[in-house]
Amino acid sequence: MNRPVIGLPLGDPAGVGPEIIVKSLNIAEIYELCRPVVIGDVAVLEQAMKFCGVKLAVNKIAAPAEGKYTFGSIDVIDLANVDTARLQIGKVQAMGGQAAFDYIKKTTELALAKEIDAMATTPINKESLKAAKVNYIGHTEILEDLTQTKNPLTMFQVFDLRVFFLTRHVSLRRACALITADSIYEFIQRCVKALEVLGVKNPKLAVAGLNPHSGEHGLFGDEEVREIEPAIAKAKADGINVLGPVPADSVFHFALKGKYDAVLSLYHDQGHIATKMVDFERTISITNNMPFLRTSVDHGTAFDIAGTGKVSEVSMVEAIKLAALYAPSFNRQ
């Protein structure tokens, strides 16, 4: 019973979330690593099993402590908040957005109450949230508010490559303006702390360069000389094991091979392209700096194939595995 309890909110019931959950929980290895509990709607799960040709028993429970957690069945906290007769698979609709929010909210409550050890989330749809008048644009913003966490820290992982992001959803021009010595120094500290919380001892962090060849000492832009190098020098003076700036065309390769424990990417696409080119399906998002650990698939609701059973469960399986791997270290902090 030392296996961590991983909460799985069902996601948008009109998307592929229910299908990737039933496919993932049809794999015996998952139950060897953790105790998965679904927070969702039994009728939606049963519908997803029909779509996927999966036959699993449903064990309806009121709390995670009641779960059986045995391969061949699914333990479900049933919110019974979807009318499957009216649910339009593959469509934006208020019912789907509201249900998705309800699942996340309930899972968050369980995590804050220490009834589950981590959360592995499935896709939600921004337009469906808006249709339901749920005023958030995504998981991170919902969790930030529900947990009263300021500026959660996102890390991507694919195999042994871990990547943090200095800037994310801003224009490239704006991202360059946000690359300052102060912001880099702060992020180096946050990244190293996050790695330690996940169980990485004395983590070695590489900071990616911004310009080609990290600027060649000012020949191709002066951001490295003016902002990035001073921040790294300051962090090193504090005893932090950080290197760089390392040219972006090589730093991710070396990190994947084990030279660095993680890379601080300076803008959204720099790190996203690097991880997703290694393995698109196995690139998992991990949210740090919250009261509990959250992992997530890095794909959307895939409305175009929802209800067909064609969706791959690989990303969900990896999200559950990473939640199970890191939860013990995270929760010891």
What does this structure look like?
The chain contains twelve helices and twelve strands. By secondary structure, it is α/β, with parallel strands linked by helices. The chain folds into two domains: 5-153 and 281-332, Isopropylmalate Dehydrogenase, CATH 3.40.718.10; 160-277, Isopropylmalate Dehydrogenase, CATH 3.40.718.10. Helix 4 (94-112) packs across helix 6 (139-146). The radius of gyration is 21 Å and the shape is elongated. The mean pLDDT is 95. Belongs to the PdxA family. PdxA2 subfamily. GO terms for molecular function: metal ion binding; NAD binding; oxidoreductase activity. InterPro entries: PdxA_fam.
List keywords for this structure.
333 residues; 18% strand; 12 helices; Isopropylmalate Dehydrogenase; twelve-stranded mixed β-sheet; alpha/beta; 2 domains
Topology summary:
Layout: E1 5-9, H1 17-24, H2 28-33, E2 35-40, H3 42-52, E3 57-61, E4 73-78, H4 94-112, E5 118-121, H5 126-131, H6 139-146, E6 153-158, E7 161-165, H7 172-178, H8 181-197, E8 205-208, H9 223-237, E9 242-246, H10 248-256, E10 262-265, H11 268-278, E11 284-288, E12 293-296, H12 314-332
Parallel strand pairs: 1-2, 1-5, 2-4, 3-4, 5-12, 7-10, 8-9, 8-10
Antiparallel strand pairs: 6-7, 6-11, 11-12
Helix pairs in contact: 1-3, 4-6, 8-9
